[in-house]
Design goal:
The structure is a single chain. It contains 11 helices and no strands. It is an all-alpha fold and about 280 residues long. The chain has one domain.
């Protein structure tokens, strides 16, 4: 019996994360954009206050999420949104308040993300989201999510300002980059789990670039290019409304709830050559 199989027998009967449907990626992109705009909006009240408030919100969301025994849309996506705002605030403070250069910040968060994934794989033998059925797997999952949001924030700022691509250029860059893992996976040259995590990380700078383009002034000096000037408040509350409607739909209709672990295992035994989606 493998370590993962043994964990499944002693863990939750259902996975603690949603199925990887198209609506998952829509919700993920919404949270990435909201993380950027909400952080900017809250910064108007003070950078350190924002960091403390969002940290407390994340702790509360994690308590709620970890107390559930299966994936539930409201606590899960509340936790994702909290991490998105906190990760953005954290990365921005390290870069713009503490003064650590963006290339170094980006490299640091990339190393942290890689380290968490390596420890997760060493512990569980898999990085598949289908394996999020124990408290330990779930902890590794959320550590990865936190690191990936901070990494995406730094990477988006790096391309927009340091590399001078601007918001539109960054949107184009990450929009193309996020398709690459999917193409490689479809061609059979990239494992599904690797493709998932690559795309997951890339959604953050893509969503943040879109949000920056929407909220920043037409001439955002020093940030590599201007936006269309809607403002952080309008973008935040508009995005939050869309997010709440989407999560309400997921909570009511439950189209993204994974099958019981026993059913998933039975399907894999019946089709051992089939590669899982993630």
């Amino acid at each position: 019996m493998t370590k993962t199989s043994q964990a499944r027998r002693t863990g939750y009967p259902y996975a603690k994360v949603p199925a990887l449907t198209a609506i998952f990626w829509v919700a993920k992109l919404l949270t990435t954009g909201l993380g950027e705009s909400a952080s900017d909006f809250m910064f108007l009240g003070g950078h350190w206050i924002t960091l403390i408030v969002t940290a407390l919100a994340v702790v509360g969301a994690f308590v709620w999420q970890f107390r559930t025994s299966w994936y539930q849309a409201v606590p899960y996506w509340t936790a994702v949104l909290g991490v998105a705002v906190f990760g953005t605030a954290e990365a921005d403070i390290v870069t713009y308040i503490v003064g650590v250069p963006l290339p170094l910040v980006t490299a640091g968060y990339a190393a942290a993300t890689a380290a968490v994934l390596a420890l997760w794989y060493r512990s569980e033998g898999t990085l598949s989201v289908h394996s999020i059925t124990t408290r330990r797997c779930e902890t590794f999952y959320w550590l990865t999510v936190m690191c990936s949001f901070a990494l995406g924030t730094a990477a988006g700022d790096l391309t927009a300002s340091t590399l001078g691509l601007g918001f539109v250029g960054s949107m184009a860059l990450f929009g193309v980059a996020i398709v690459v893992p999917w193409i490689l996976h479809r061609r059979g040259t990239l494992h599904s789990v690797t493709a998932f995590w690559a795309a997951y990380v890339l959604t953050r700078p893509l969503g943040a670039s879109v949000a920056d383009w929407l909220l920043k002034p037409v001439h955002a000096d020093g940030e590599g290019g201007g936006g269309i000037g809607l403002g952080s408040g309008a973008v935040t509350f508009g995005g939050l409304l869309l997010f709440m409607l989407l999560v309400a739909y997921l909570a009511i209709k439950r189209p993204d709830v994974q099958d019981p672990i026993e059913s998933i295992d039975a399907q894999r035994v019946a089709s051992p050559a089939e590669t899982p989606n993630a």
